[in-house]
Amino acid sequence: MFKFLLISSLILATSCTNSLKKGFKDAKYGAYEMIGYEKRDLFKKEVKAVKKDQDDSQKAFEDALAKLQYFYSYDGGKTESEYNKLKDSYQSSLDESENLSASIQKLDEVAKDLFAEWKEEINGISNSELRKKSTVKLSETRIRYRELHQKLKNSEKNMSPILVKMKDQVTFLKHNLNAGAISGLQTEGDRIEQDIEKLIKEMKTANQEAEDFIKTL
Fold first, then answer.
1. Where are the domains of the chain?
2. Residues in Cβ contact with 55 at an 8 Å cutoff, skipping those fewer than 6 apart
3. Is the whole model's pTM more than 0.85, yes or no?
């Protein structure tokens, strides 16, 4: 009996939470519509926001790559100052990656809502020719969005292991800022540099995909 009540309570709580989320989302869209913003406008706005965050993430990782390369090639002695620059560069990369992840999630939520509304509105078009054209446009937009979303998720996924490796190096160097310890990290440092270079190429591809997608909206 207790188990049944517990399960029922959880189901009710989940239902209430979902209802609140839907109510908040509807209110948000309603407020935007009052000032002339349709879901399509918000969708385009979120694509641009993701592109900007992707640009910022790319720049942060490019800076991290430069700092790593300089740190391991610098012959003037590894100072606390050089270590702090590397640490700051890692933190910046981490912050920008989190911003990008949040933007991708927000974009996907708006995309799902837009496509659902679009499909529902198509059913209300009485002219068969116009209904067909709108259906084709919806299908094309969905396909293009899936391609963009996949590239964005690939970049997001590949950032995580690089950030973990960078954190390991920064933490280790915090405790062992001497020539011997730094020399021992050189091989792993080279691998991280290669991973970052590959990631930057992926980001550039995703950025171009976003740019092309924006032009179709």
1. 1-37, 38-216
2. 207
3. no
